[in-house]
Amino acid sequence: MQQQPTLKDCVAVVTGASRGAGRGIAQELGAAGATVYVTGRSTRAQPAGTYAQLMGLSGLDALPGSIDETAEAVTRMGGRGIAVRCDHTCEDDVEALFARVEREAGRVDLLVNNAWGGHETFNGVFDAPFWEHPLANWESMFDHGVRNHLLASRFAAPMMVRRKRGLIVTTTFWDRDRYLRGNLFYDLAKASMTRLAFGMAQELRPHGVASLAVSPGWMRTEFVLAAHKTDESHWQERPALARTESPRYLGRAVAALGGDAGVLGKSGAVHRVADLAREYGFTDVDGRRVPAFELEEG
């Protein structure tokens, strides 16, 4: 039987939590009782302005989600949600975020690095030779993706090291080092995030702080649902989405890790959500234990 982790004394920061994976993670941390600083650029009053191309491809007139809505969901589910607008590419914004967390909460127990700019340059083509992908993908995936994770970690780590405890989770995609054929930029970015989590673990372990990467499968984010002309209540009517999982499946994995007193033993590794579901005994929101998403060999 699934046991809900208890995180009522946990102070968490979830970056890029307006929608998608970040929103699912923040919700499940809230369900476990955590105080969650929900960060991103999209507020209810002013959505991020860099998703026009993806919105057009998805048939959306308005950008879904905001940090305000996610923070409210965290509170409804039993935690305490605090929305903080933060451009994670801006060092001043990130420094101000963690200064606020330290001033208000006195610590950070869990940082989830999830802010990702890769969708901002997506042109509808995922599978193509590297010489045909736009070079703009480098900036969106590395300068607005990998760098975001490093920047947030640089401010969170000293706060954790002082207390000799803490966990940094990096969201990534990993399938046993198989190549993400058809998108070299994406493959490089995700491999870099995985290596970042590993490298930070080596330097943080002597201080009692853990760093690890978590890899979900194919998630039914707002953009995925829109692209398939459906919603979370009707996705099962779309056979193409049969292998998908909700963002909250990933959220339950992060909550389980956050509640594991022995998490330092997992530091440095990449952990697939499906494997964590078996280990910790949780399921997706529909009761399924969704198998790991695995790439075709070839």
TrEMBL record:
Q: Which Pfam families match?
A: adh_short_C2
Q: Which InterPro entries match?
A: NAD(P)-bd_dom_sf, SDR_fam
Q: What is the protein named?
A: NAD(P)-dependent dehydrogenase (Short-subunit alcohol dehydrogenase family)
| The species this protein was found in | Variovorax soli
